[in-house]
Design brief:
Blueprint: E1 10-11, H1 21-25, H2 37-54, E2 60-67, H3 69-80, E3 86-91, H4 98-105, E4 109-114, H5 123-133, E5 137-141, E6 143-144, E7 149-150, H6 153-162, E8 166-170, E9 189-193, E10 203-210, H7 211-217, H8 229-236, H9 247-264, H10 266-285, E11 291-292, E12 303-307, H11 314-327, E13 330-331, H12 337-345, E14 351-355, H13 362-377
Parallel strand pairs: 1-13, 3-4, 3-5, 5-8, 8-9
Antiparallel strand pairs: 2-10, 6-7, 9-10, 11-12, 12-14
Helix pairs in contact: 2-9, 3-4, 5-6, 9-10, 10-13, 11-13
């Protein structure tokens, strides 16, 4: 059998992300039985370190859903939105629509409140919608991967609770890259995943379940099997997963979370992401015709979006710049194509994304931006 020539590209996309060699090597740790005592040695520390990174204690129970972030999100929808209830989803981008799409595909009554691309949630607009709709559950995205917008989770959750609704939060692309302060957030359930800011392969959706959410999940019917929070929690409290996990990924996750908490340090990791956001801001400001897509104060610490000069097209970004960067050994993110097409149809300039999440280091980012600048100047 002939072996394909896989290119050793350095990933600067928004997931999957760059994985350190030592994290990859942790995949060689021994396999184990997921109902055996060996399981405790992996998932006990995993759950403890997840709580530390999230900034919570026993007030939230971490569960691991097989799949990706959307698996945890669907679990929250199936378990926390009753059949006679209405879900309001609040979207600030293409991935912000995910919660709404999941709800509709599961037969839930749902409405989607959309904000302009590049803008955060406007609390005044949201409040008007809450008054008019009176939903029982509200879902929103903490960090919008398509636009690079970060929402003020605590402020949004606080407003939602003023109207008696339960907040569900999608934190897929930010968890592990910024302070979450989950215990002080007001979120009923926070969903994330392994393949973005935790710098691991895809394979687990991660859910942080509050006592309030657990109580409600016990009353909601038709949750299915793998989307039943009650079943997940029963196993989680034994440091287990509901169904057979990817033990190779579990070994990598055990190693990586320990490294984040006890080697790099959580606060150091968060500070590094903020530093890299500043690097992109300074870089974009120095390029003629380029500018940041998101207003200062609402820019993600894990993914930055840059607006191109007039005349540059999404096709050029994808077919010229991306392929030029491939020749330089990088996988460049030319922007979320669905979003760029919508921007261009509206007469607006396209954007590209710079993923600086996970284990990307400032020196790696500096080298990437230097190479990217050279390719962009060819346009």
């Amino acid at each position: 059998m002939s072996k394909p020539n896989f290119a050793p590209l350095k990933l600067f996309i928004t997931g999957p992300t760059y994985i350190r060699r030592d994290v990859k090597e942790a995949a060689l740790l021994p396999e184990f039985g997921h109902r055996d005592a060996e399981n405790d040695l992996r998932f006990g520390p995993i759950r403890e370190n997840l709580r530390k990174i999230a900034g919570c204690g026993d007030d939230y129970e971490p569960i691991l859903c097989l799949g990706s972030g959307s698996s945890a999100m669907e679990t929250s929808i199936r378990s926390l939105v009753a059949e006679d209830e209405t879900l309001l989803n609040v979207s600030v981008g293409s991935f912000g629509d995910m919660y709404y799409n999941i709800a509709v595909s599961n037969g839930k009554k749902a409405e989607n409140l959309k904000f302009d691309y590049g803008m955060p949630i406007d609390l005044n607009v949201l409040e008007d919608k809450l008054k008019a709709l009176r939903p029982q559950v509200v879902s929103f995205t903490h960090n919008e991967t398509s636009t690079g917008v970060i929402n003020d989770m605590k402020a949004v959750c606080s407003l939602i609770r003023q109207y008696g609704a339960m907040p569900l939060v999608d934190g897929v692309s930010i968890f592990g890259g910024a302070t979450i302060a989950l215990s002080d957030s007001g979120a009923a359930m926070y969903s994330t995943a392994t393949q973005k800011s935790l710098a691991l392969p895809a394979g687990f959706g991660i859910g942080f379940v509050s006592g309030e959410a657990e109580e409600k999940a016990g009353r909601v019917t038709n949750k299915g099997h793998h989307h039943d929070i009650t079943k997940h929690l029963e196993r989680a409290r034994k440091n287990q997963t509901l169904t057979t996990p990817n033990t190779t990924l579990a070994n990598m996750m055990w190693y990586q979370l320990d490294r984040i908490v006890n080697e790099e340090g959580i606060e150091n990791r968060f500070a590094r992401h903020i530093e890299m956001r500043g690097m992109v801001e300074k870089w974009a400001a120095g390029l003629d015709g380029f500018e940041m897509f998101v207003a200062e104060g609402f820019r993600s610490p894990t993914v930055s979006t840059v607006v191109c000069p007039q005349g540059v097209t999404s096709v050029q970004l994808k077919e010229t710049v991306k392929e030029g960067m491939r020749d330089e050994g990088y996988l460049m993110d030319p922007g979320y194509m669905k979003l760029n097409h919508l921007l261009e149809e509206a007469g607006r300039r396209p954007i590209f994304r710079v993923g600086h999440m996970g284990d990307i280091m400032p020196d790696m980012l500096a080298a990437y931006l230097d190479a990217l600048e050279k390719e962009l100047m060819k346009l």
